[in-house]
Automatic annotation (TrEMBL):
Record protein name field: 7-carboxy-7-deazaguanine synthase
Cofactor(s) essential for the protein: [4Fe-4S] cluster; Mg(2+); S-adenosyl-L-methionine
Gene: queE
Family that this chain belongs to: Belongs to the radical SAM superfamily. 7-carboxy-7-deazaguanine synthase family.
Keyword field: 4Fe-4S, Iron, Iron-sulfur, Lyase, Magnesium, Metal-binding, Queuosine biosynthesis, S-adenosyl-L-methionine
Amino acid sequence: MVSEEVMAMVEAGKMLPLMEEFYTIQGEGFHKGTAAYFIRVGGCDVGCHWCDVKESWDANIHPPTHVDEIVQNAAKYSDTIVVTGGEPLTWDMAPLTSGLKSRNLQTHIETSGAYDLTGEWDWICLSPKKNKLPVQEIYPLAHELKVIVYNKHDFIFAEEQAAKVSKDCILYLQPEWSVRDKMIPMIVDYVMKDPKWKVSLQTHKYLNIP
């Protein structure tokens, strides 16, 4: 059972429910193909039915880990650190990014934007979800917008979201993995008709790496 002291540290962002951490190749979006250290934080109530890491949803099954330990591990492997989830902004990210920045590390986040942005980020990948829309404040701060396409109606959602980000934000359409064979031709056709969009694929799955 987690003590009240530990719970208080988690609420303050000084400890985080760490699901996993690993060094790999970024598989998606603008930085695909580059080496990065991933920190996957537990806890998410957005509830996408096609989520491929549902085991991340329940923060209680992932051990509270001090951010100093997380930073120390990350600094051994890469200059680029990607914080993902779950939904990492469930928690206060300021202590984690402060520690990473003290080591001169690049901080990237992958988020639905459903909660207020905390922490200091060099790159924000906003991947909005219909179940729980982003807070308005994050849209102008996003460096890339990545919309997961599960069916044809998601193109409408993608355009609604693209209208809210800055003109410099890079726009991606990414097929949901389980329906990729069906959706990739539709996405390719869409991007060719409207080249403000780019195609994002989960290349790490094709490479058979984490």
